Amino acid sequence: MDDILLFVIIPAACLVLLLLYLLVAPAIAALRGAALVSELLWRYCQLLNGVLRLRTPEFVTVPPYRPADELAHRNYFFGPATRDLRQLVTQGRRLYVRTVTDAYRRVTARQFTAPSVHRAASVPYGLTLYLGLGIGAGAAVPVLGALLGVQALGVALLTGGARLTALTLRATDRAVMVLRGLPRGMLCPSCFERVPYPAYDCPRGTCRRRHADIRPGTFGLFRRRCACGERIPTLLMLMSRDARLNGHCVHEHCGKPMNPDAGHMPELVLPLVGGRAAGKTQLMAAMVKSLETAAENGGPAIRLADPESSANQRVLNEVLEIQGHTRPTQKTLPRAHSFVLGSGRAERLVHIFDTAGERFVNREETDALRYIREARTFLFVLDPMAVDAFWTRLDPAAPKVDRTLASTVDPEDVFARSVQTVRTMGTRLDKARLAVAVSKRDLLSGRPALLPDRPDDSGTTREWLCERLGLRNLVKTMDLEFGEVRFFCTAAVADGEGRVDPSIRALVEWCLRE
Question: What is the pTM (predicted TM-score) of this model?
Answer without folding.
Answer: 0.76
